[in-house]
Amino acid sequence: MPMTVTGTTDLTHRRAVLDTAMQERGAWPARSPWIREAVRTLPRDRFAPDRLWRWDGHAYVPVDRQVDPDGWARELYAGPDDAAVTQVTDGLPTSSLSSPGVVVDMLDSLLLEPGHRVLDLGTGAGWNCALAAHRTGPGRVTSIEVDTGLAAAARARLAQAGLAVGVEVGDGAAGWPVGIPFDRVIATYAVERVPWPWVEQCAPGGRIVTPWGRLGHVALTVADDHRSATGWMQGLAQFMPARDRSRPEPAFAEVRGHGPADHRGAMERGLEPLRADWDLLFTLRVTLPAVRITTAVDQDGTSAWIHDGLASWAVLSARPGGATVHGGGPRRLAAELEAAWRTWETHDRPGVYDYGMTVRPDRQYVWLNDPDTGPRWPTSATADQGQAVD
Questions:
Q1: What would the mean pLDDT of 314-330 be, rounded to a whole number?
Q2: Three-state secondary structure call for residue 295
Q3: What is the pLDDT of residues 201-248, one digit of tens each?
Q4: Are the CB atoms for 104 and 18 separated by under 8 Å?
Q5: Is 333 within 8 Å of 308 (Cβ atoms)?
Q6: Residue 326 above 90 pLDDT?
Q7: Local structure of 47: helix, strand or coil
Q8: Considering the domain 8-236 in this protein, what is its CATH number?
Q9: Where do the coiled-coil regions begin and end (predicted)?
Q10: pTM
Q11: Using CA atoms, how far apart are residues 117 and 363, in angstroms rounded to an integer?
């Protein structure tokens, strides 16, 4: 006997559980009470496709609403910090319904008001732009999606919800020059550099909220002279990158290759903070923008594998009180990591909220504590070994 689609009662219960979990952790923002009401009116299950994807420890496997309605609902409402993967391409996730906590936090950072014209970049399933449209009113939100199939499906869901949102197919990096300026710009995918068209298409005094570097998001205010945008980091979260035609980011093994290590050394500190100290990890993301770090724990402690995506790599193998190091390539990544770690300690261990970003036509950078006097680091992933800029 075939199973039926998840019932309304079950979804109602799961919505209530999520609402309570958000309330208990203080995740419903006091300055934006409209967001909670919008989420209740437009729950995420109204925008989720009938197939989600779950990681089973080895690969992403489909969870179909018709076949496993309870599993589908659990995947969609796993918790405030859990995204639901909605598309997998070549074994890798390429679209998702972002976690409720992140969606709410970013919309709160947007400081959205009724009547604002909004450019939403990365339509996905359409939930984010639906919530924005609930706040701004009919015809005020334009959403850009590079995937024609996702755009068509989102367009249908938005229409079914009675929301007048323009969904266009295009490259989000180019923005949408039709009908500018926008009062607000929000992206739902991570960028390494904020595309300048986003600033050009946002009105002076307007606000841009975007994930940066797949580890946090920033809220920028466009200057009155329209020649820059500046603002503070808003929180930590991991985001999918923009989809483009560049080759996928190489894995450690690809950079490492098969040759012998050409330098060895030691690190006289434990590596446990590289697993869970998000203030340190965000700082390393700022100061060593091209470096990728992977960790694992065994009986000897925490070990790390790091690479720069090009030709330099290092393995930091745990030992009592520190780690042995061997690596290869032109850069000494373990030494750079140690120097950046010490700099973080020298600056009193700053966290994500101590950093901000400035975007100009010719350059952009992340700064610490003060946009004018604080140390700065370029945002480009190809920046020279994470050195501060003037």
A1: 95
A2: strand
A3: 999 999 999 999 778 899 999 999 999 999 999 988 776 667 654 456
A4: no
A5: yes
A6: yes
A7: coil
A8: 3.40.50.150
A9: none
A10: 0.90
A11: 27
Cα–Cα dist 104/249, whole Å = 29
Q: Cα dist. 61→6, 69, 92, 99 in Å?
A: 19, 15, 11, 19
Catalytic residues: 98
CB 106 within 8 A of CB 207: no
In this structure, the strands spanning 182-187 and 118-121 are parallel
- The residue extents of the domains of the chain are 8-236, 252-346
Tokens of 338: 């140690």
Q: Tokens 């923005």 correspond to what residue?
A: 175
Q: Give, to the nearest 10 degrees, the angle between helix 8-24 and helix 33-41.
A: 170
One-letter identity of residue 375: P
Q: Tell me the sheet residues that pair with 185.
A: 119, 208
Q: Note the pLDDT tens digit of each residue in 275-304.
A: 989 999 999 999 998 899 999 999 999 999
Provide the mean pLDDT of the chain.
91
Q: Which CATH number does the domain 252-346 belong to among 2.40.360, 3.90.930, 3.30.160, 3.40.190?
A: 3.30.160
- Count of positions (residues) in the chain: 390
**Which tokens in the block code for residue 85?**
């993967």
